[in-house]
Design goal:
Elements (H helix, E strand, L loop, with lengths): L11 H15 L5 E4 L4 E4 L2 E3 L3 E4 L4 E7 L4 H13 L4 E9 L3 E6 L1
Parallel strand pairs: 5-6
Antiparallel strand pairs: 1-4, 2-3, 4-5, 6-7
Length: 106
Amino acid sequence: MKPIIKYPKMNKWEKAHESELLILLQIREILGYHFEPFGLKLASKTYYHPDFLVVYPDHFEIHEVKGFMRDDANVKIKVATKLFPWFQFKLFYGYTKRNGFKIKDY
């Protein structure tokens, strides 16, 4: 019996952000990225699973992509920024084809 491996699937906003990341990869502004790479433990039985880990030449960024922000997701990203200060956290939201994403730095 083969083990079952579940791979995360991207929603339409995550796919749109990946398109932007692919451009940054082609022009060598980033070294790479990974979709839903890990979970960050925030508290007992509470994890934050970031959408993207983006690797720059001199730092790592966590990119969270939202069509809309729920309260629990907002709290989790704020807690994660305090517990994991070696990452830069960015929220990508409000996507339109004409203007792309709005970006909020944490």
